[in-house]
Write a structure and sequence with these properties.
The complex is a heterodimer of chains A (147) and B (304). Chain A has 147 residues and is mainly α. Chain A has five helices and no strands. The termini of chain B are far apart. Classes of the chains: A mainly alpha (147), B mainly alpha (304).
Chain lengths: 147, 304
């Protein structure tokens, strides 16, 4: 009897813990996707600012990363993942269609840029000028300012 | 005996009346005299447009979710929730009936720099005249001239829905007595022209401090915490400290700050977010030299 209640208690504890981990997992996953996109934008920015020479392979890799990551991004917000170390605002879950549409918009823009591929420093700067405002448009409504 | 009570009562009335008189004198609407707004000549439209973008007029006064050219239609209609109730932002388009098309320069100028409406009433400081007070009469003339060139809208916004006692406009006079002035927010050691220009843009039209400086319970700025950040009035998170002591942007160079205001990218290529998005997109219309001036000012203010 006593043993059984310990087992049940332990089982419940495990469930709770795994639920807690399950909440941290999508948060970590989506933050990792965004970090990679930030680094990709940084690689483009270094070329746009003239800090690094134009390199077609770098541009291609960066745009491919942004495209792939942003398409996977909206799937990293399962119910319950609004709690934890996250800047995601409740609006993500209140207006999921609009949230998803903005991710699609960035993905399409990145794909369009990949199709024509910016050919020089100025082209890369122009590309960033197209991508950046879509980043901001989403961060305006769906991400809290600094924690 | 009755006469003694009458004397006491009479004295009481006199004291109260005198007190009310003093209170009124200290808190009554206080516009500039008409002569202040006279003889300013033709407006400089370039300066007027720069002030329009620096002032962020469109971020509140355009229609909800307006972008692009629609930002120049100042129809009002956005709702601004606050702890005091909901402000409904008015139409300031060039429409003579619904907007400010039939206002005089003095009426516009006193609203902008003294917080006094065209009927001589106090305006609520949700309209940041506490910052705009730093615009000169010439600046006001230029901005007014520019606003008149923007499209008219016949939209009429509903009246504010404020809780008692905030619905009493007279009470705004008390707030002004305590907190309203047109002096510099910080004394700067540097007399550099670029830093001075940045101080004007940031403390005046840019009204950076309205969000980036913490306030006390009565809505007054904590003077020794200028631009030190604070809670986000719109919900989750905090508005960052933007002084050189900031853990968020303290390490940014002047060039980093200017670049952020121009492109919306932080030095590590995160993007601008929240209510700063509209601010950044407005500021991107300014000449680069003005963005560099704001950056120089932010590097010159005391670290918090």
């Amino acid at each position: 009897m006593r043993l059984r209640s310990y087992v049940i208690a332990a089982g419940v504890a495990c469930l709770c813990l795994s639920a807690a981990f399950a909440q941290q997992e999508p948060i970590a996953a989506r933050q990792s996707l965004m970090k990679q996109n930030r680094q990709a934008a940084g690689a483009l920015g270094a070329i746009a600012k003239g800090e690094k020479p134009y390199d077609e392979a770098v541009v291609k890799t960066a745009l491919t990363t942004i495209s792939a990551n942003i398409k996977a991004f909206p799937d990293q917000f399962p119910p319950g993942s609004d709690i934890g170390d996250t800047k995601a605002l409740p609006a993500v879950w209140q207006k999921p269609d609009d949230f998803r549409a903005l991710a699609t918009k960035l993905g399409s823009e990145a794909d369009a840029l990949l199709a024509t591929l910016p050919a020089d420093k100025d082209g890369v700067a122009a590309a960033l000028g197209k991508l950046g405002p879509i980043c901001s448009e989403c961060h305006k409504t769906y991400r809290a300012p600094t924690n | 005996m009755a006469s003694r009570w009458a004397k006491v009562l009479g004295a009481g009335v006199v004291v109260v009346a005198a007190g009310a008189g003093v209170a009124w004198a200290l808190t009554k609407p206080d516009p500039h005299p008409d002569t202040y707004w006279a003889g300013l000549g033709e407006p400089d439209m370039v300066n007027g447009e720069h002030l329009f973008w620096a002032g962020g007029c469109a971020s509140c006064h355009s229609a909800p979710n307006a972008t692009g050219d629609a930002l120049k239609v100042l129809s009002g209609g956005r709702a601004l929730p606050s702890p005091f109730g909901t402000f409904h932002i008015p139409n300031i388009s060039s429409d003579p009936g619904a907007g400010i098309g039939d206002w005089t320069l003095a009426e516009f100028g006193n609203a902008m720099t003294r917080g006094v409406g065209p009927d001589g009433e106090h305006l609520y400081p949700s309209f940041p005249y506490g910052s705009y007070a730093r615009l000169s009469a010439k600046d006001i003339n230029d901005l007014f001239g520019y606003l008149k060139t923007l499209p008219a809208s016949s939209n009429v916004a509903p009246p504010h829905e404020l809780q008692f006692p905030y619905n009493i406009r007279l009470a705004v006079g008390g707030w002004k007595f305590l907190y309203f002035n047109d002096r510099p927010r910080v004394e700067l050691a540097s007399a550099d022209e670029k830093v001075r220009r940045g101080q004007f843009l940031a403390e005046g039209p840019g009204h950076c401090g309205e969000c980036h400086t913490p306030r006390n319970a009565l809505g007054g700025f904590l003077a020794d915490q200028w631009l030190a950040g604070g809670p986000n009035p719109e919900g989750k998170g905090t508005i960052p400290d933007i002084t050189p002591g900031s853990r968020d942007i303290g390490s940014w160079s002047e060039g980093d700050i200017a670049s952020y205001l121009e492109t919306g990218f932080t030095p590590d290529y995160d993007s601008v977010g929240g209510s700063m998005v509209e601010v950044q997109q407005n500021l991107a219309h300014l000449p680069k030299s003005d963005l560099e001036a704001i950056a120089a000012y932010l590097k010159a203010v005391p670290a918090r």
